Amino acid sequence: MHNVLRLAIIGAGASGLIAASEAQHQGLLCTVFDKARRAGGRLASHRSDWGSFNHGAPFLSMPTQAPTPSDPRLQHALSHGLSTLHVSAIHGEKQPAFVPSDSINSLAQLWTEGLTCHFEHTLCELKHDGNNWWLKFSEQLGWLGPFDRVLMTCPPVQALALLSKLPSQYRLCQQLQTMHHAPCWSVRWAPKASPALAAGVFIRDDLQASGIALCIREDLRPQGGGAPRFTLHATAAWSAAHLEESSESVALALMHAAAEALKLPANTESLEAHRWRYGYVSAAAGKAYLRGEHGLFYAGDACLGATAIDAMHSGLAAADAICAELPLTAVDCR
After folding, report:
1. Hey, what domains does the chain have and what are their CATH numbers?
2. What are phi and psi of 91, to 5 degrees?
3. pLDDT digits (tens, 9 = 90+) for 109-153
4. Is the pTM of this model over 0.70?
5. pLDDT, tens digit (0-9, with 9 covering 90-100), for 39-50
6. Are 332 and 323 in contact, with CB atoms under 8 Å apart?
7. What is the C-alpha to C-alpha distance for residues 32 and 119, in angstroms, rounded to an integer?
8. Could you tell me where the DSSP H helices lie in 192-307?
Protein backbone atom coordinates (compact mmCIF):
# COMPACT_ATOMS: atom_id res chain seq x y z
CA MET A 1 0.00 0.00 0.00
CA HIS A 2 1.28 3.43 -0.90
CA ASN A 3 0.92 6.24 1.62
CA VAL A 4 0.84 9.21 -0.74
CA LEU A 5 -1.92 9.69 -3.29
CA ARG A 6 -0.60 10.02 -6.83
CA LEU A 7 -2.00 12.53 -9.31
CA ALA A 8 -1.01 12.72 -12.98
CA ILE A 9 -1.65 16.06 -14.68
CA ILE A 10 -1.70 16.26 -18.47
CA GLY A 11 -0.67 19.73 -19.64
CA ALA A 12 1.79 22.26 -18.20
CA GLY A 13 -0.11 25.40 -19.03
CA ALA A 14 -1.58 27.82 -16.50
CA SER A 15 -4.35 25.43 -15.44
CA GLY A 16 -2.16 22.36 -15.05
CA LEU A 17 0.66 24.12 -13.23
CA ILE A 18 -1.48 25.86 -10.63
CA ALA A 19 -3.51 22.66 -10.09
CA ALA A 20 -0.32 20.69 -9.53
CA SER A 21 1.06 23.28 -7.15
CA GLU A 22 -2.13 23.38 -5.07
CA ALA A 23 -2.63 19.60 -5.01
CA GLN A 24 0.99 19.15 -3.96
CA HIS A 25 0.52 21.72 -1.17
CA GLN A 26 -2.39 19.60 0.03
CA GLY A 27 -0.18 16.53 0.20
CA LEU A 28 -0.62 14.70 -3.10
CA LEU A 29 2.29 13.39 -5.13
CA CYS A 30 1.89 15.23 -8.44
CA THR A 31 3.53 14.52 -11.78
CA VAL A 32 2.98 16.88 -14.71
CA PHE A 33 3.35 15.74 -18.34
CA ASP A 34 3.44 17.98 -21.41
CA LYS A 35 4.23 17.36 -25.07
CA ALA A 36 6.13 20.64 -25.40
CA ARG A 37 9.77 21.24 -24.54
CA ARG A 38 8.97 23.55 -21.63
CA ALA A 39 6.12 24.71 -19.43
CA GLY A 40 3.70 27.49 -20.22
CA GLY A 41 1.36 26.46 -23.02
CA ARG A 42 0.02 29.72 -24.44
CA LEU A 43 2.01 31.61 -21.80
CA ALA A 44 4.68 31.54 -24.47
CA SER A 45 7.56 33.94 -25.10
CA HIS A 46 10.24 34.22 -27.74
CA ARG A 47 13.57 35.94 -27.15
CA SER A 48 15.27 37.63 -30.08
CA ASP A 49 18.01 40.12 -30.88
CA TRP A 50 15.32 42.83 -30.82
CA GLY A 51 13.87 41.84 -27.43
CA SER A 52 11.28 39.40 -26.14
CA PHE A 53 7.85 38.75 -27.66
CA ASN A 54 4.93 37.48 -25.58
CA HIS A 55 3.31 35.93 -28.61
CA GLY A 56 0.90 33.55 -26.87
CA ALA A 57 -0.96 35.40 -24.11
CA PRO A 58 0.55 38.91 -24.32
CA PHE A 59 -0.84 39.82 -20.91
CA LEU A 60 -3.03 38.29 -18.21
CA SER A 61 -6.46 39.88 -18.39
CA MET A 62 -9.14 39.62 -15.75
CA PRO A 63 -11.16 36.39 -15.58
CA THR A 64 -14.41 36.18 -17.52
CA GLN A 65 -16.63 35.31 -14.55
CA ALA A 66 -15.02 37.36 -11.77
CA PRO A 67 -13.95 41.03 -11.56
CA THR A 68 -10.66 40.22 -9.79
CA PRO A 69 -8.55 37.13 -9.07
CA SER A 70 -9.94 37.13 -5.52
CA ASP A 71 -8.61 33.74 -4.45
CA PRO A 72 -5.48 34.47 -2.35
CA ARG A 73 -3.73 31.54 -4.03
CA LEU A 74 -4.22 33.24 -7.39
CA GLN A 75 -3.02 36.53 -5.98
CA HIS A 76 0.13 34.82 -4.74
CA ALA A 77 0.74 33.12 -8.08
CA LEU A 78 0.35 36.45 -9.86
CA SER A 79 2.56 38.40 -7.46
CA HIS A 80 5.88 37.55 -9.11
CA GLY A 81 7.18 40.51 -11.09
CA LEU A 82 3.88 41.65 -12.57
CA SER A 83 2.72 45.20 -13.15
CA THR A 84 -0.95 46.19 -13.30
CA LEU A 85 -1.81 48.01 -16.49
CA HIS A 86 -5.13 49.43 -17.66
CA VAL A 87 -5.59 48.46 -21.28
CA SER A 88 -8.42 48.79 -23.74
CA ALA A 89 -10.25 45.51 -24.00
CA ILE A 90 -11.04 44.08 -27.42
CA HIS A 91 -14.73 44.66 -26.77
CA GLY A 92 -14.18 48.33 -25.94
CA GLU A 93 -14.39 48.27 -22.14
CA LYS A 94 -11.55 49.38 -19.89
CA GLN A 95 -10.14 46.57 -17.82
CA PRO A 96 -6.99 45.98 -15.80
CA ALA A 97 -4.43 43.45 -16.93
CA PHE A 98 -1.24 42.01 -15.51
CA VAL A 99 1.91 42.51 -17.56
CA PRO A 100 5.12 40.62 -16.77
CA SER A 101 8.26 42.63 -16.09
CA ASP A 102 10.26 39.92 -17.87
CA SER A 103 8.62 37.52 -20.32
CA ILE A 104 5.26 35.95 -19.65
CA ASN A 105 6.84 32.50 -19.90
CA SER A 106 9.14 33.33 -17.00
CA LEU A 107 6.00 33.35 -14.85
CA ALA A 108 5.20 29.80 -15.93
CA GLN A 109 8.77 28.74 -15.15
CA LEU A 110 8.34 30.09 -11.61
CA TRP A 111 5.22 27.99 -11.19
CA THR A 112 7.14 24.80 -12.01
CA GLU A 113 9.39 25.20 -8.96
CA GLY A 114 9.01 22.21 -6.66
CA LEU A 115 7.00 20.23 -9.22
CA THR A 116 7.96 17.04 -11.03
CA CYS A 117 7.49 17.81 -14.72
CA HIS A 118 8.18 15.64 -17.75
CA PHE A 119 8.34 17.45 -21.09
CA GLU A 120 8.26 16.05 -24.62
CA HIS A 121 5.74 13.49 -23.39
CA THR A 122 2.79 13.16 -25.77
CA LEU A 123 -0.05 11.17 -24.21
CA CYS A 124 -1.38 8.64 -26.72
CA GLU A 125 -3.40 6.27 -24.51
CA LEU A 126 -4.64 5.86 -20.95
CA LYS A 127 -6.38 3.03 -19.15
CA HIS A 128 -7.88 2.20 -15.76
CA ASP A 129 -7.25 -1.32 -14.45
CA GLY A 130 -10.03 -1.24 -11.87
CA ASN A 131 -7.79 0.30 -9.22
CA ASN A 132 -5.33 2.68 -10.84
CA TRP A 133 -4.66 4.74 -13.94
CA TRP A 134 -1.86 4.00 -16.41
CA LEU A 135 -0.54 6.32 -19.11
CA LYS A 136 1.24 5.63 -22.39
CA PHE A 137 3.29 8.28 -24.20
CA SER A 138 4.45 8.34 -27.81
CA GLU A 139 8.05 8.95 -26.80
CA GLN A 140 8.21 6.16 -24.20
CA LEU A 141 8.00 2.37 -24.22
CA GLY A 142 5.44 0.75 -21.96
CA TRP A 143 2.99 2.26 -19.49
CA LEU A 144 3.74 4.83 -16.77
CA GLY A 145 1.92 4.60 -13.45
CA PRO A 146 0.14 3.70 -11.37
CA PHE A 147 -1.79 6.92 -10.57
CA ASP A 148 -4.79 7.30 -8.28
CA ARG A 149 -6.23 10.28 -10.15
CA VAL A 150 -5.72 11.96 -13.53
CA LEU A 151 -6.37 15.61 -14.35
CA MET A 152 -6.42 16.51 -18.04
CA THR A 153 -5.84 20.17 -18.97
CA CYS A 154 -5.13 19.80 -22.71
CA PRO A 155 -7.55 21.33 -25.27
CA PRO A 156 -10.97 19.60 -25.28
CA VAL A 157 -10.54 18.19 -28.79
CA GLN A 158 -7.30 16.48 -27.73
CA ALA A 159 -8.91 15.10 -24.58
CA LEU A 160 -11.84 13.80 -26.64
CA ALA A 161 -9.53 11.96 -29.02
CA LEU A 162 -8.15 10.01 -26.06
CA LEU A 163 -11.23 9.58 -23.88
CA SER A 164 -13.62 8.54 -26.67
CA LYS A 165 -11.83 5.18 -26.59
CA LEU A 166 -12.97 4.64 -22.99
CA PRO A 167 -16.67 3.71 -22.71
CA SER A 168 -16.68 4.64 -19.01
CA GLN A 169 -15.98 8.29 -19.94
CA TYR A 170 -19.01 8.69 -22.22
CA ARG A 171 -20.66 11.37 -20.06
CA LEU A 172 -17.46 13.38 -19.79
CA CYS A 173 -16.99 13.17 -23.56
CA GLN A 174 -20.50 14.57 -24.05
CA GLN A 175 -19.53 17.58 -21.93
CA LEU A 176 -16.24 18.04 -23.75
CA GLN A 177 -18.10 18.14 -27.07
CA THR A 178 -19.83 21.37 -25.99
CA MET A 179 -16.48 23.16 -25.54
CA HIS A 180 -14.73 24.71 -28.53
CA HIS A 181 -11.64 26.71 -29.42
CA ALA A 182 -10.96 28.85 -32.47
CA PRO A 183 -7.48 29.26 -33.98
CA CYS A 184 -5.24 32.29 -33.71
CA TRP A 185 -2.31 33.25 -35.92
CA SER A 186 0.30 35.23 -33.97
CA VAL A 187 3.04 37.26 -35.68
CA ARG A 188 6.28 38.62 -34.24
CA TRP A 189 7.32 41.71 -36.21
CA ALA A 190 10.41 43.89 -35.72
CA PRO A 191 10.23 46.64 -38.38
CA LYS A 192 13.17 48.63 -39.64
CA ALA A 193 13.73 51.96 -37.90
CA SER A 194 11.12 54.56 -38.84
CA PRO A 195 10.38 58.05 -37.46
CA ALA A 196 6.69 57.06 -37.20
CA LEU A 197 7.54 54.45 -34.59
CA ALA A 198 8.38 57.13 -32.05
CA ALA A 199 4.66 57.81 -31.64
CA GLY A 200 3.79 54.13 -31.24
CA VAL A 201 1.11 52.66 -29.04
CA PHE A 202 1.17 49.91 -26.45
CA ILE A 203 -2.01 48.19 -27.56
CA ARG A 204 -4.30 48.77 -30.53
CA ASP A 205 -7.55 46.83 -30.79
CA ASP A 206 -9.22 48.90 -33.54
CA LEU A 207 -7.76 46.94 -36.45
CA GLN A 208 -10.48 44.27 -36.71
CA ALA A 209 -11.32 45.25 -40.28
CA SER A 210 -7.74 44.37 -41.21
CA GLY A 211 -8.09 40.91 -39.69
CA ILE A 212 -6.03 41.89 -36.64
CA ALA A 213 -7.53 41.33 -33.19
CA LEU A 214 -4.62 42.74 -31.19
CA CYS A 215 -1.54 44.79 -32.01
CA ILE A 216 0.97 45.24 -29.20
CA ARG A 217 4.12 47.36 -29.01
CA GLU A 218 6.27 44.98 -26.97
CA ASP A 219 9.01 47.56 -26.32
CA LEU A 220 6.49 49.90 -24.64
CA ARG A 221 5.23 47.45 -22.05
CA PRO A 222 6.69 47.86 -18.53
CA GLN A 223 10.39 46.94 -18.69
CA GLY A 224 9.84 45.90 -22.31
CA GLY A 225 12.93 47.63 -23.69
CA GLY A 226 14.73 46.57 -26.81
CA ALA A 227 13.98 47.68 -30.34
CA PRO A 228 10.50 48.74 -31.50
CA ARG A 229 8.58 45.56 -32.23
CA PHE A 230 5.04 44.27 -32.43
CA THR A 231 3.07 41.16 -31.56
CA LEU A 232 0.06 40.78 -33.84
CA HIS A 233 -2.87 38.44 -33.19
CA ALA A 234 -5.22 37.74 -36.07
CA THR A 235 -8.95 37.54 -35.45
CA ALA A 236 -10.51 34.09 -35.05
CA ALA A 237 -12.30 34.46 -38.39
CA TRP A 238 -9.15 35.51 -40.27
CA SER A 239 -7.12 32.76 -38.58
CA ALA A 240 -9.68 30.10 -39.50
CA ALA A 241 -9.80 31.28 -43.11
CA HIS A 242 -5.99 31.12 -43.41
CA LEU A 243 -5.36 28.26 -40.98
CA GLU A 244 -3.48 25.92 -43.30
CA GLU A 245 -1.47 28.55 -45.15
CA SER A 246 2.28 28.75 -44.66
CA SER A 247 3.63 30.75 -41.74
CA GLU A 248 5.64 32.87 -44.19
CA SER A 249 2.59 33.98 -46.20
CA VAL A 250 0.54 34.62 -43.05
CA ALA A 251 3.33 36.69 -41.48
CA LEU A 252 3.63 38.85 -44.61
CA ALA A 253 -0.12 39.36 -44.92
CA LEU A 254 -0.60 40.45 -41.31
CA MET A 255 2.52 42.61 -41.34
CA HIS A 256 1.26 44.47 -44.43
CA ALA A 257 -2.19 44.89 -42.86
CA ALA A 258 -0.70 46.28 -39.63
CA ALA A 259 1.72 48.55 -41.48
CA GLU A 260 -1.12 50.03 -43.54
CA ALA A 261 -3.35 50.54 -40.49
CA LEU A 262 -0.53 52.07 -38.41
CA LYS A 263 0.77 54.11 -41.35
CA LEU A 264 4.21 52.51 -41.15
CA PRO A 265 6.50 51.32 -43.93
CA ALA A 266 5.91 47.63 -44.71
CA ASN A 267 9.48 46.57 -44.00
CA THR A 268 11.04 44.25 -41.50
CA GLU A 269 14.18 43.31 -39.65
CA SER A 270 12.53 40.16 -38.32
CA LEU A 271 9.19 38.53 -39.10
CA GLU A 272 7.82 35.17 -37.86
CA ALA A 273 4.36 33.65 -37.41
CA HIS A 274 3.08 31.01 -35.03
CA ARG A 275 -0.16 29.05 -35.47
CA TRP A 276 -2.18 28.54 -32.28
CA ARG A 277 -4.80 25.98 -33.25
CA TYR A 278 -6.61 26.50 -29.94
CA GLY A 279 -5.98 30.19 -29.40
CA TYR A 280 -9.47 31.49 -28.59
CA VAL A 281 -12.23 29.95 -26.46
CA SER A 282 -15.34 30.12 -28.63
CA ALA A 283 -17.64 28.02 -26.40
CA ALA A 284 -17.03 27.39 -22.69
CA ALA A 285 -18.64 24.77 -20.46
CA GLY A 286 -19.66 27.28 -17.81
CA LYS A 287 -18.36 25.00 -15.06
CA ALA A 288 -15.16 25.35 -13.05
CA TYR A 289 -14.08 21.80 -13.90
CA LEU A 290 -15.49 18.55 -15.27
CA ARG A 291 -15.55 15.17 -13.55
CA GLY A 292 -15.36 11.82 -15.28
CA GLU A 293 -15.40 8.30 -13.88
CA HIS A 294 -12.77 6.50 -11.81
CA GLY A 295 -11.11 9.71 -10.61
CA LEU A 296 -10.62 11.38 -13.99
CA PHE A 297 -11.00 15.19 -14.07
CA TYR A 298 -10.77 17.91 -16.71
CA ALA A 299 -9.82 21.60 -16.24
CA GLY A 300 -8.76 24.46 -18.49
CA ASP A 301 -9.69 27.84 -19.91
CA ALA A 302 -12.58 26.34 -21.93
CA CYS A 303 -14.28 25.39 -18.67
CA LEU A 304 -14.87 28.96 -17.53
CA GLY A 305 -13.92 31.42 -20.23
CA ALA A 306 -11.24 32.89 -22.40
CA THR A 307 -8.36 34.02 -20.21
CA ALA A 308 -5.31 32.51 -18.54
CA ILE A 309 -6.75 33.52 -15.18
CA ASP A 310 -9.95 31.63 -16.07
CA ALA A 311 -7.68 28.63 -16.66
CA MET A 312 -6.04 29.15 -13.26
CA HIS A 313 -9.43 29.37 -11.52
CA SER A 314 -10.38 26.09 -13.20
CA GLY A 315 -7.14 24.38 -12.17
CA LEU A 316 -7.57 25.43 -8.55
CA ALA A 317 -11.18 24.26 -8.46
CA ALA A 318 -10.21 20.87 -9.89
CA ALA A 319 -7.35 20.48 -7.40
CA ASP A 320 -9.67 21.30 -4.50
CA ALA A 321 -12.25 18.79 -5.74
CA ILE A 322 -9.66 16.04 -6.16
CA CYS A 323 -8.19 16.63 -2.71
CA ALA A 324 -11.60 16.91 -1.03
CA GLU A 325 -12.78 13.46 -2.14
CA LEU A 326 -9.62 11.58 -1.28
CA PRO A 327 -8.97 9.78 2.04
CA LEU A 328 -6.91 11.60 4.62
CA THR A 329 -3.67 9.90 3.63
CA ALA A 330 -2.59 13.20 2.16
CA VAL A 331 -1.04 15.69 4.55
CA ASP A 332 -1.28 19.47 4.10
CA CYS A 333 2.26 20.56 3.22
CA ARG A 334 1.77 24.28 3.58
Report:
1. 6-39+112-179+284-325 (3.50.50.60), 182-281 (3.90.660.10)
2. -90, 10
3. 999 999 999 999 999 999 999 999 999 999 989 999 999 999 999
4. yes
5. 999 999 999 999
6. no
7. 8
8. 236-241, 247-262, 301-304
